[in-house]
Amino acid sequence: MTSDQAAAAAGALVGLPWPEAEELLRSLGIPYRTLVTRPPGRGEGVGEPRVVGVRPGPDAPWLVILAYPEYRSGSMEST
Predict the structure, then answer these.
(1) Fewest Cβ atoms closer than 10 Å to its Cβ: which of 10, 40, 56, 71?
(2) How many structural domains comprise the chain?
(3) Contact, 45 vs 71, CB < 8 A?
(4) Which residues constitute the domain of residue 61?
């Protein structure tokens, strides 16, 4: 995959629900890892996570950044 193709594929993933994005990554044979992000002090994520960012790597798995559309009230313990 050329860098232009990787950039186009990465851009196509942003905004997709995670199940759709995961299916696309698998169909293209792209190795990936995920990171779920959330605002500080927010509770548990609610709903279906979406892709909010992608960092393609030529020789490493792509980093796919996910976020939930909503969060339950309450605080989570710091880790």
Answers:
(1) 40
(2) 1
(3) yes
(4) 3-71
Distance CA 8, CA 4 (A): 6
Closest CA to 54 of 33, 39, 71: 33
Q: C-alpha angle 20/42/34, rounded to 5°?
A: 35
| Location of structure tokens 């995670």 | 18
pTM: 0.81
Q: Which residue has the tokens 């698998």?
A: 26
6-16 pLDDT tens trace: 778 888 899 99
For 39-52, the DSSP string reads -TT---EES--EEE
Are residues 45 and 76 in contact, defined by beta-carbon separation less than 8 angstroms? no
